[in-house]
Amino acid sequence: MGDTFIRHIALLGFEKRFVPSQHYVYMFLVKWQDLSEKVVYRKFTEIYEFHKMLKEMFPIEAGEIHTENRVIPHLPAPRWYDGQRAAESRQGTLTEYFNSLMGLPMKISRCPHLLNFFKVRPDDLKLPNDSQVKKPETYLTAKDGKNNVADITGPIILQTYRAIADYEKGSKTEMTVATGDVVDVVEKSESGWWFCQMKTKRGWVPASYLEPLDSPDEAEDPDPNYAGEPYVTIKAYAAVEEDEVSLSEGEAIEVIHKLLDGWWVVRKGDITGYFPSMYLQKAGEEITQAQRQIRSRGAPPRRSTIRNAQSIHQRSRKRLSQDTYRRNSVRFLQQRRRPARPGPQSPDSKGERQRGAWPGLEGGGSKGRGEI
């Protein structure tokens, strides 16, 4: 088992909060050695205190003995009053600061002081006890990494969903919702667990318990990819529903459809079926850490197993049946095995086929996703 360390720290933006008084916190996406990604919130005063302690721990690298030996980057002290303009302009400095820290020798970049500072705290998972009149405002940095004032977005608008049934949380990191509750989705994980917030609560909720408010087609799943992506099962699963597939641990399979609810359609030979994405890992990647995550949260329930689900939409989105998946998959495999016919091909023809747009396949387009 390897040591715990941080691979990368990315500044996402900042949040303006109003309780107990107006202040700003910075949002960091921290990628750990097990490839897990956590969002944490830190005040600049906390960051500066962290910086001072780091200098005390490494006086030589901080240039306290000889200035020419300094490798720990500089960080300006907090101002007496930090307004929004200061919070915006400081983002470039923080990005450079943590990029520099992560490039330092491991005794600094992997020291317990740094790891403990970025560990997830209870406050990172729960919104402050804010009034309903003044909610926190979130500002994101531009995707190109520039941090000029002109690059800052306005407060982001999160996607809003409604709970179709009651869900009782199973751990401290999850969130209980009741039928009809409206939540904002902060993060959509491929595992089928979505990180949501509602009033003063935050936590993980199964995507199968949520539906978009506007229309059932709002959160469109990607199209099937019958070329398939190679994955390995990291946990055995015995099929419960007829359209699921049973697999043992360590089996090599192909994923042909990644659905947002965390139940992917996989192919093993000519057999296709639903399988929990949490029990899959890309072929060739380390599986130890992924297996550890399974113990903290298992596969989310499928929507078809939720009793008394109440949709607000008159129609619900139809999904391809396993019969359709199987027929399309068999046709694709047959066409792939055939010898290539001589003749001119357009430059894009290969790319189109890789995306599943093969002649004779059913339900290939996003508008024709229902049963055929």
Observed structural traits:
372 residues; alpha+beta; 5-stranded antiparallel sheet; disordered C terminus
What does this 3D model show about the protein?
The radius of gyration is 24 Å and the shape is globular. The chain contains eight helices and 14 strands. A hairpin with a 2-residue loop joins strand 12 (263-268) and strand 13 (271-276). It is an alpha+beta fold and 372 residues long. The chain has helices at 44-57, 84-102, 106-109, 112-117, 122-125, 288-296, 322-337, 349-354; strands at residues 6-17, 23-32, 37-42, 137-140, 159-163, 182-188, 193-198, 201-206, 210-212, 229-233, 252-257, 263-268, 271-276, 280-282. Residues 4-125 form the PX domain. GO terms for molecular function: phosphatidylinositol binding; superoxide-generating NADPH oxidase activator activity. Residues 290-372 are annotated as: Disordered. One of its GO terms (biological process) is respiratory burst.
